[in-house]
Amino acid sequence: SGKWLYLGMDFGTSGARYAVIDKEGNINAEGKREYPLFMSDESVDWLSSWRSTLFSLLEDVPVGLRSRIASISIDGTSATTMIINSKTGKPLSKAFLYNESCGDALPMVKSIAPENHTVCSGSSTLCKLVYWWNSSDANKESAVLMHQADWLLWLLHGKLGVSDYNNALKVGYDPEIDSYPAWLTVQPYYFALPSIQAPGTPIEFMKEEIRKNFGFPDNCVICTGTTDSIAAFLAARATQPGKAVTSLGSTLAIKLLSTKRIEDSRFGVYSHRLDDKWLVGGASNTGGAVLKQIFTDEQLEKLSERINPMEPSPLDYYPLQSVGERFPMADPNMEPRLHPRPENDVEYLHGILESIARIEAKGYQLLKDLGSTPVEEVFTAGGGSKNPNWIKIRERVLGLPVHKALQTEAAYGAALLALKGSAASSS
Ligand code: ADP
């Protein structure tokens, strides 16, 4: 007995995690698994690896909590795609990974999609589908396209052909009109596209066999998921327009909740739908990777403590690991700028941290210039969020409150989607 709980699972690039939360958002259990390596014909059999990881995670959920899990949701890497036989549930293709390019299909995709559409990239889900359609001699009549999260959820509920509008963006789904666009519906493979729901929508009860085996309750409901980076945004609970999350890991990525949708392919800016709002974002090539080339994590900590964050640094850098920047300035030839280097490393680091903060500020300014809701408050995640003096520098440069996000794990965001779905299914 006890309160109802909600299970989220994150299938990221390097491994999978789970989080069990209660209605208040408290974590009751969490854990992680690496992907086991299954080989078939000298290539990695990802489907077997993910399936095995899914059931390992279900086993990792403490037995005493399982009977209280009201709902489950899963996020996966964006544009990780496979084609399944809708009659047998067997794969008709291998798993195409998020970063895999099917460039052969690009000219055909470009010929049907509007200019600069998100699908016009070799690694888009649509390029993967078109590539498979044109090269496979499998029986295509019963084909159904699934994203990684859809497929994992399907293993739990058994109803084929359901996805969410976050995962489906890169296959061409239009979240604004909430349907597939006309240029897609006339294609011969249109029938293979999944039907689309909002993330965190109840799909079906968990399969009886799995419920019984693992001890989940009869009314445990499986809900649509999202992509891993959106789940990580949801974890920070920035739920009002104007709230944003900056991840400062190896690179700098900003995501802002907006009432208006904005798109600009020059800067790689696009919007994901989140219910009645838009999640707008951009990613710069600056970030912690440059710091890592110059300083160890320990040096970073020691030197940062000696910076006076209230004092502006006169040094103006553009820290990049290699040539080229996309956002907030689109310039493939931009050179890294890290000179002059002062003798004092505290001053040097101060200059770099402040320069990265200026790029962050410029990023939010660009989103505003493109028409988004202006940023009011920033939550921050990633390795750089551990640095309190950098947070103070950023508050001064952005002119906004900046807080370390309390939760940053995508699995936590997926658990919030399960909570949302459970509320929807019981109302
Ligand atoms: P990834 O994007 O690779 O997952 P992380 O979120 O783990 O990255 O962050 C790693 C980055 O954080 C490294 O590039 C490192 O330079 C940076 N970092 C680590 N400690 C600090 C610190 N105290 N201050 C600023 N940056 C830091």
How would you explain this protein's 3D organization?
The protein has 427 residues and is α/β, with parallel strands linked by helices. Strands 1, 2, 3, 6, 11, 12 and 13 form a seven-stranded mixed sheet that branches. The protein has a six-stranded mixed sheet with strand order 16-17-15-14-18-19, covered by helices on one side. Helix 8 packs across helix 13 and helix 11 crosses helix 12. The radius of gyration is 22 Å and the shape is globular. It starts with a strand and ends with a helix. The structure holds adenosine-5'-diphosphate.
How are the SSEs placed, and which strands pair?
Elements (H helix, E strand, L loop, with lengths): L4 E7 L3 E7 L5 E8 L4 E2 L2 E2 L1 H15 L2 H4 L2 E8 L4 E5 L20 H7 L12 H11 L7 E5 H10 L4 E3 L17 H4 L9 E3 L4 E4 L2 H7 L6 E3 L2 E2 H8 L7 E6 L3 E7 L11 E5 L2 E8 L3 H7 L2 H9 L39 H25 L7 E5 L6 H11 L3 E3 L5 H17 L1
Bound molecules: adenosine-5'-diphosphate.
Adenosine-5'-diphosphate binds next to helix 9 and helix 10.
Instruction: Write the CATH homologous superfamily of the largest domain.
Output: ATPase, nucleotide binding domain
> According to CATH, what is the topology of the largest domain?
Nucleotidyltransferase, domain 5
Number of domain units: 2
Q: Using the coordinates above, name the CATH class of the largest domain.
A: Alpha Beta
- Overall spatial form: globular
Work out the helicity level. Answer: 25-40%
- Average of the residue pLDDT scores: 97
Tally of extended strands? 19
| Amino-to-carboxy terminus distance | 22 Å
Strand content: 15-25%
Bound molecules: adenosine-5'-diphosphate
In CATH terms, what is the architecture of the largest domain?
A: 2-Layer Sandwich
Q: Give the number of helices.
A: 13
Question: Which structural class do you get from the secondary structure elements?
Answer: alpha/beta
The value of Rg in angstroms is 22 Å
Largest sheet: 7 strands, mixed
Poorly predicted residue ranges: none
